[in-house]
Amino acid sequence: QEALESFKLYGRLFKRYDPAVAEKVYEKEGLNGLVRVWIKTWPNTFSEAHLQAMLGEYEKALDILEKLCPDRNIDPVDLTFGYDFRNLHDNPRYISIMKEMGLPHE
């Protein structure tokens, strides 16, 4: 319940989404639903890649990272050591992104 209240406050303060929508989504889908609402406010960003990975949507996270990689719109430390990306470390697409950015990948 505390997460919902914080989420609604964030939506209200930053005018990212209607707090009433957050309430309905939370009732149906719980915290994962709130994360999906948040994703819609940060499309195709490193933040979205984080959130997709957190939800276990690894292919979506990798799609976003591959789009961001050429422009270097990725935090290299976070990509290398971030908790949300830990399950990608053996993925060939992740390794390719790491190589392209000149980051350690083993």
In short:
By secondary structure, the chain is an all-alpha fold. Helix 1 packs across helix 2 and helix 2 crosses helix 3.
Account of the protein in words:
It is a single chain. With 106 residues, this protein is mainly α. 67% of the residues lie in helices and 0% in strands. The protein is built from six helices and no strands. The protein has helices at residues 2-14, 19-41, 46-54, 58-68, 76-81, 92-100. The model has no long low-confidence stretch (mean pLDDT 89).
Overall 3D geometry?
elongated
Q: Biggest sheet: strands, sense, closure?
A: none
Give the end-to-end Cα distance, rounded to a whole number of Å.
40 Å
Strand content: under 5%
**Strand count:** 0
H/E order of the elements? HHHHHH
Walk me through the topology.
Layout: H1 2-14, H2 19-41, H3 46-54, H4 58-68, H5 76-81, H6 92-100
Helix pairs in contact: 1-2, 2-3, 3-4
